[in-house]
Design brief:
496 residues; mainly alpha; 19 helices
Length: 496
């Protein structure tokens, strides 16, 4: 099953491209079917790996050459958790896109690029060697550059150009870091690299590469001070693309890759922990302050992403089992409620013909599905109980207290209050104000409403992931992968 996570999206992309001259309903059906199959497969694999007594890892060797020289694909607890998050959101975004992209010509190009990006994201999650992780990262990023510019308006083209430039700079830092690591270890397999680094301990090389990776992956994750590109790309892109960028892409290309290398290859040390905490605090504070003054609804959500990713960085920086649990749970929550907020923004923009918050009054009365979906996601991101966003933030805050960092816990709590304030200030008139006159009048389609409603249900129900049975399947394996550090690496002899 392991290679299917890349094969199915790639097959969907090429089938849609090969059937370009057929009816567009064929492309819609292919896209939704492909998204559903890959989401169902990810849930099945997660359930299989998370069950009691399971081996906890799946491996697939490509070709006859064994690792570390050969290429292998590996799914462990962290990979399976991220696969569920990515592909579940991807399926619902695809469903939404079947209604949203009706205004575009050549819709098949959108779907082909979308599934190419999804294949690259899944490849990053499966890669067991650091160079293939980089290759799949570039596949996903290049597809994303084109998708941001898909509407070909001046704003979208400018945003795509800025995103491509910053993404290329990030990729250069990452590739340079990989080159130094390869020079020091003579291997690219991450498990083998961890073994060599532990034996030789080239401290200067690790320090240099750590700086390069923090800059490179920090740019991919839009952590402060590497966040400048995000508001342009996420606000200008079509709504389904914004949802994927903010919901899953920056988490996989940035947070996941950073965590995988620092926890499982280098082994987390005090200096890196402190750097992640400082960057996390800056991201929380700067993102919240910038979001507070926005008049564009998509830019509001984009800067909010910077702030919320800060919570994840703090949890990873504290690095206790409880903090890692909170970071991963918040990553999952943010993936679903931020994807939903961007889908809602797309529906609202179609309905009103603008993204200006002052002209979006009365959405709840006009479009109840969009309105209530926006409400539940805004409440969750603001940390209102009993929604999942409250619990993930609370876990991170209590983890900071447990680790002897009460000041950090206080900062996280205050930023959560500030988040509630700016969301209440910005979205109350949008949802509860008097009904405004429509200028565009394009109401959400049935597919768009179905996708938003399904994501809203997930946001409302995400707190159930704290139940022991669900937590064991979804989160415990991922927590163990990070907290076990370099000891968690799959033995090379186990890859058959």
């Amino acid at each position: 099953m392991v290679p299917l996570f890349m094969v199915i999206p790639l097959a969907a992309a090429f089938i849609i491209a090969l059937t370009a001259k057929l009816d567009e309903r064929v492309h819609d059906a292919c896209a939704v079917t492909g998204g559903f199959v890959i989401a169902a497969l990810s849930i099945a694999v997660c359930a299989l790996l998370g069950r009691s007594g399971a081996p906890g890892v799946m491996t697939y060797r490509i070709g006859s050459l064994p690792p570390p020289a050969g290429i292998a694909l590996v799914i462990d607890g962290l990979s399976s958790f991220m696969l569920v998050t990515v592909n579940l959101v991807g399926f619902l975004v695809t469903l939404y896109a079947t209604g949203y992209v009706k205004c575009y010509t050549d819709r098949w190009k959108f779907y082909s690029l979308f599934f190419l990006m999804l294949s690259g994201i899944n490849g990053v999650l499966l890669a067991s060697d650091i160079f293939n992780l980089y290759v799949f990262m570039e596949i996903a990023a290049i597809a994303a550059y084109f998708l941001v510019a898909f509407g070909t308006e001046a704003e979208e083209l400018e945003a795509s150009f800025k995103y491509a430039i910053m993404g290329s700079v990030a990729s250069a830092f990452i590739l340079l870091g990989i080159a130094f690591l390869y020079g020091a270890t003579s291997t690219l397999n991450m498990a083998d690299m961890a073994r060599v680094l532990a034996a030789s301990n080239p401290a200067r090389v690790i320090q240099l590469v750590s700086v390069l990776f923090i800059m490179g992956f920090g740019l991919k994750a839009a952590l402060v001070p590497f966040h400048a590109w995000l508001a342009y790309a996420h606000s200008s892109a079509p709504a389904p693309v914004s949802a994927m960028l903010s919901g899953v892409l920056i988490k996989v290309l940035g947070i996941y890759a950073l965590s995988r290398i620092f926890f499982n290859v280098f082994g987390m040390d005090t200096a890196i922990m402190q750097i992640l905490i400082v960057i996390g605090v800056l991201s929380m504070a700067v993102g919240a302050i910038l979001a507070f003054g926005q008049s564009d609804i998509k830019r509001l959500f984009a800067y909010s992403t910077v702030s919320q990713i800060g919570y994840v960085a703090i949890g990873l920086g504290v690095a206790t089992p409880l903090a890692v649990f909170g970071a991963l749970f918040h990553l999952f929550n943010h993936s679903i409620f931020k994807s939903l907020l961007f889908l809602n923004a797309g529906a609202i923009e179609r309905l009103r013909g603008t993204r200006e918050l002052g002209k979006l009054s009365g959405i709840l009365a006009d479009e109840p599905v969009t309105g209530y979906a926006t409400l539940v996601s805004a409440l969750s991101i603001s940390g209102i109980p009993p929604l999942g966003g409250f619990w993930s933030k609370a876990i991170i805050i209590f983890a900071c207290i447990q680790a002897g960092r009460p000041a950090l816990a206080l900062i996280a709590a205050l930023i959560s209050i500030l988040t509630l304030v700016y969301y209440f200030r910005s979205l109350s008139p949008v949802l509860f104000g008097p009904k405004a006159e429509m200028t565009a009048g394009a109401r959400p389609t049935l597919a768009m409403n179905a996708a938003m409603a399904a994501l809203a249900v997930l946001v409302a129900a995400s707190a159930f992931a704290l139940l022991p049975a669900i937590k064991e399947v979804l989160l415990n394996g991922a927590i163990a992968v990070l907290t076990n550090g370099t000891a968690n690496n799959v033995p090379l002899g186990a890859i058959q």
